[in-house]
Amino acid sequence: MLLFNKIVATIAGSMLLAxxxxxxxxxxxxxxxxxxxxxxxxxxxxxxxxxxxxxxxxIPILLLAWFQYRHFxxxxxxxxxxxxxxxxxFSGISHSSSLHIHPVTSSIIGGIFMGVGFGIMLRNNISTxxxxxxxxxxxxxxxxxxxxxxxxxxxxIITLGGLLFSPRTFFLSILTITIGGISTGICCYRRxxxxxxxxxxx
Length: 202
Prior knowledge:
Elements lengths: L1 H24 L8 H13 L3 H19 L1 H20 L3 H4 L6 H21 L7 H12 L3 H19 L2 H22 L14
Helix pairs in contact: 1-4, 1-6, 2-3, 2-8, 3-4, 3-7, 6-9, 7-8, 8-9
């Protein structure tokens, strides 16, 4: 049953990521953080396939996981492959879509799709790998907070995108990762177990 839940969560989360990227981010040159953000930059520059580029850019990080965090490798490798497959499988909708919405609205909706997709997978202990592992490695080596390290890495990727494309890309991308982070947090939130009152003993 646990394996079935993981398979369903991986497929559902990957589909949401693929829709968010292809339908709401790519049409307006909006970036996400992490390795997906790097893959999107290469897509905007040279029309590289986001899914395949995501895999290629993740290879050094996966090698690091294999030697340093073996459990992370096994939890992230399937999620990375399946999400990459769906991202490229759904790539046609970014060109054929008839949606005409404001870029800010698109970045918000895209962030929700991305955040919920990641949240569904993380709630089932599934990851797509990426810079989270790199951030953990850097944090362990330098004895700094891993959340701060992730923030710095994502900030560098978003800033690079802003410099390469436009200030609009920078600000829309900041909005997307903010909304995505909130959505992920909501999906991963687990209500603490309800305390059962203990009968009073004399």
